[in-house]
Amino acid sequence: MIVFFEGLDGSGKSSASKLVAEMLRKGGLTVCHTRAPGGTPSAERIRGLLMGDERLHPDTILLLFSASANEQLQFIKEQEEECDVVVCDRWLFSTFAYQLAMDANPELVTEMIQRVMFTPYDPRLAFYLDATPEVREQRIYDRDGDKDRFSSFPQFVRARMTTNYATMVKAGWLNPVNANGPLTGVVDDCLERIWRIRDPERANGKVAPYTRLKNLPPIEVPKQP
């Protein structure tokens, strides 16, 4: 079982993913926590380029994400065989949302998604932490200056990202979670959904057991306002 956490900067996805992994371990499961880009030595080196101060062309950034994802893909598959649950902080959903907003070539973006996106997966376990701009801005501010190129975008780029994530939610790629409240509430919500799929008996038969999609649902690349 693979659980993905997605969201704009300041949504709380990194904190939530780490705490969910911790709580699942306390629940008796073996859990691997990873992040994208990153997770392997080579992918972490690529992450260093992506998160640095050097100005890069949008298509260059996209290709770096693709390289990182290729390195991480086999790692995730291996961990899925060894662990009950793999928790991943971001995946290629972020690439779709962010790189389109940064004017990367749409054809390159969609080709990369089709080639590298880890499928099949269960969209009920791909959480999009949805928080208002005000909440996200405050959380970023509270980081005491911990910013990188992806948490310092101008407002119009963030608006594009929001549109792109909304497109994925509508297409069924992502499962929205209200992330405006305290972290504990977000974590409890996600844990409840995970346990209901992991152990259908807890849902009294109201939620279908864990199944895997055969194909990623189709999606139209939104025009960037």
What are the SSEs and their pairings?
Blueprint: E1 2-6, H1 13-26, E2 31-35, H2 41-50, H3 58-82, E3 85-89, H4 92-101, H5 106-116, E4 126-130, H6 133-141, H7 155-171, E5 175-178, H8 183-198
Parallel strand pairs: 1-3, 1-4, 2-3, 4-5
Biggest sheet record: 5 strands, parallel
User: How many helical stretches?
Assistant: 8
Strand residues, percent: 5-15%
CATH class: Alpha Beta
Principal-axis shape: globular
N to C succession of SSEs: EHEHHEHHEHHEH
Task: Tell me what you see in this structure.
This protein is of the alpha/beta class and 225 residues long. The chain has one domain: Rossmann fold (3-Layer(aba) Sandwich). It is built from eight helices and five strands. The protein has helices at residues 13-26, 41-50, 58-82, 92-101, 106-116, 133-141, 155-171, 183-198; strands at 2-6, 31-35, 85-89, 126-130, 175-178. Strands 2-3-1-4-5 form a five-stranded parallel sheet, sandwiched between helices. α2 (41-50) packs antiparallel against α3 (58-82). The longest helix is centred in the N-terminal third of the chain and has 25 residues, at 58-82. It starts with a strand and ends in a 27-residue tail after the last helix. The model has no long low-confidence stretch (mean pLDDT 85).
